[in-house]
Design a protein that fits this description.
about 140 residues; alpha/beta; Rossmann fold; seven-stranded mixed beta sheet; 5 helices; 7 strands; globular
Length: about 140
Amino acid sequence: MKSYRLKLDELNILADEIVTNFQKGVVILNGDLACGKTTLVKEVVKKLGFSGDVTSPTFSLQQCYGDNIFHYDIYNHGLEHFISLGMLEELDKDGLHFVEWGDDELLAILNSAGIDTLKIDIEKISDDAREYKVEYAHA
């Protein structure tokens, strides 16, 4: 596991690592409300060349950015609802998938299905700094 303490204007450091080392699979993002999950997704998506709006899919469940970047939020309805809608199969599509509020159960399911995963836990240190704990769990 790698750990980063970054100010928000240094987030490109972590985004560069993700873009360099994890081109496809599922990135599971965890942390308290307003800790910066969507902010991290915005930075990575920008690095991948997408220039449109990147917003939290809290109420829509899924956002797509181009043809192969996907963003999910399972906070409101939980993993069981996500699975019941058939969204688990979406995570097997070729591309990079960001899941906000994924948990260890989702991680286990993905790893048992042979899907590469990257788990990032985010902790708010101050108004402009976060600690990111990054754990690759390649299938």
